[in-house]
Amino acid sequence: MKPVLAAFALLLALPVQAAEKLTVALDWTPNTNHVGLYVALARGWFADAGLDVEILPYTDTSSGTLVATGVAEFGILSAVGFHSQRSMGADMTAVMAVVQHETGRLVFNGEREDIQRPADLDGLTYAGFGSAWENALISSIIRHDGGEGTFETVTLGTSAYEALANGSVDFTLEVSTWEGVNSDLLGRPQRWFSYADYGVPDQHTTFLGGNADWLAANSATAGAFVKAAQRGYAFAADNPHEAADLLIAGADGMLSNPELVHASMRALVDGGFLKDPGEPVGLIDPELFTGITGFLFEAGILRDADGDVHETMPDVSGWYTNRYLAD
User: Fold this and answer.
1) Taking each helix axis from N to C terminus, what angle separates 132-144 and 79-87, rounded to the nearest 10 degrees?
2) pLDDT digits (tens, 9 = 90+) for 89-144
3) Which of 65, 39, 69, 220 is nearest to 55 (CA)?
């Protein structure tokens, strides 16, 4: 056998190195906050990094719990949920800011003449989702405007938006880049109050987080995954229409309204939510991170592992890292 052919035969006989398997948990059913993951999968950037990435189906178990317990190596995490779980000792670290600024807002029927300012919400009925954050947030907004911060709450979950539309409740909270966009498409008139206008710190509303113990033991793999995901989100920021199509295709029929997906992607990009000028996509801002943690601490939302309210502000320096991001 000729030397070249012998070498080729030997190469074929060597075992192929298998891609490393990783799982990612979602914080909700597929939506545009997850677009970078689906882009990276579709364009083969995870595979190029030697990774076999599976996006787990959404379940009733929170993504933070799945990450903290090691069921998933990574997860998309709502910011307030992350802060709350991390303060109780959950084993996870934020490794990328998926959404750079606050996308939430307090909304009400745009035809309501009796609501002109947050203080007008005193005594009205709020359609909520069952978290301590909501009460602290809304009370703070109303009091900042000179009101008492008192209101009635009915917990409705995603039914809140229909209840608002039919007048069963007076106000609710929404994500402007998803529910807000959908309300526009449905022709529902809305007005809103932005949190930051009434004393609530801006924040990264969504993180990509990893299991802290796993990150410490698998730094190189973690860096490869995060950089590929970051590349996906950067692509989405520059190519929202194509990214929306890749998300729709990758979600396997779970996104039945392409118009909403495309409109949501435009809202994310036009609002500057995916990328700050002059900064890498995904960069976690220490001031934003610490600022919202301080708000949650002052509101008595952050609890320790025993369920007791923290008496002193936790040290959050180890709760997040930018080390795995590309410059």
Assistant:
1) 110
2) 999 999 999 999 999 999 999 999 999 999 999 999 999 999 989 999 999 999 99
3) 39
Q: Let me know how long the chain is.
A: 327
Residues 59 and 167: their CA atoms lie apart, in Å, by 31
pTM above 0.90, yes or no: yes
Distance CA(65)–CA(72), nearest Å, equals: 9
Count CB atoms within 10 A of the CB of residue 129. 14
Q: 309 by DSSP, 3-state: which? A: strand
Interacting residues of 247 by C-beta distance below 8 A, sequence separation 6+: 30, 32, 34, 35, 38, 39, 255, 261, 265
* Per-residue H/E/C for 137-192: HHHHHHHHCCCCCCCEEEECHHHHHHHHHCCCCCEEEEEHHHHHHHHHHCCCCEEE
Sign of CA pseudo-dihedral 78, 83, 85, 89: positive
Q: Which residues pair with 99 in a beta bridge?
A: 206
Token pair belonging to 93 = 């670290």
Q: Report the C-alpha gap between 210 and 212 in whole angstroms.
A: 6
DSSP-derived letter for residue 202 is P
Burial class (CB in 10 A: 0-12, 13-18, 19+), 91: middle
**Strand order of the sheet with strand 92-99?**
51-55, 20-25, 74-78, 206-211, 92-99
